[in-house]
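Residues pack. One example:


***
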Amino acid sequence: MIAAEETLRCRETVNGLTGLGDISKDFYYDETNNYRKFHFKSGRLNIEDVGEFLLGGVVVDKGRSIDISELKKEIRLDKTANELKFKHVAKGSLPDVLKSKKIKSVLEFLVNERIDVHFQRVNSFYWGIVDIIESVLSNLPNELKLCHWGIKDYLYNALTTDIENTVNMLHTYNYPDIDSSKISKFYDDVSCIVKRTTSTNKYLHESLLYALQIGGNQDEAVFIQDEEKLILVDNYSPFYRDRLLTFPASNHYLDMEENIKTSLDLTLNSFQGAPLLNYKFLNSHESDWIQLSDVIIGLTAKIINYCNRLSESELISFRRNIGNTESRILDLVEELITRSHDECRAYFHNVVPLSHLEVLGNLLRKLN
């Protein structure tokens, strides 16, 4: 049984968040990019173009109901569609999506109805490789411990810059099940990849190489040994469970995913000494809230995927040159996220490289 108190203590220690156990809301969820399992296969990753796993949607006061029938009429939802989904209101890449007046109508509805949003971002490859640093963290000097997020970010960017050699190297070592006799050579090979990349920050570049040197001198690397070989993400249920434990006094309504339901049902949660049964799976056509969540997560995924591919200057240029509808949609997204973040910072949880945290702001930030 997993106690919610452990997660709440972690949120307080790491993020400075308190009082989460007192928040009583209804959370509704949809997801995208749940790859079931992210792993090496025949010397390659089983998913080549990996998008961020997103889990989230809308959050409202407990017991609040909603009727979106008028909204469906306003956006002229096809009568053959028995529910509202992102694919019914927008298609194509982000520049095409931002031209959708239907998306604008849904966002205006959420803003006017004072409906908050929440989501968790997970970069699957980042999640899989940060344990290279986690395995040496306790042996780093305090100065480097304080900037471990920057070191992990630098490692991620170095490894993804040379992704083909990175994948070949990790596969060779059966990562993350590295034999003890090969720990030193493994860290040396990671260092070689880092050294071949162009330094973008001298301090982080040298700090990362120093951390990898320490790793090579260790007898063990606890988080990248004795794990299931060649598996970077075994399944995505821990990210669902994290939300249940972060808001234990709230109800969590999830779009039906049989494999996630099976996994969550196998391990019980607890809160204040009692079993914690605060989640329920629904079919999306049964819940207007989950249908709204589908639109939010679909749009957010398009935005994040686009932002992760462009530089800061390219995003600013894009924002400067878009039309009124596109600008209005981005303003609405920014308003929803800002208002929700002001309500509760924990509505948003990120397991992504530090440099990726800033990309949304580069696009959503209003230009003078």
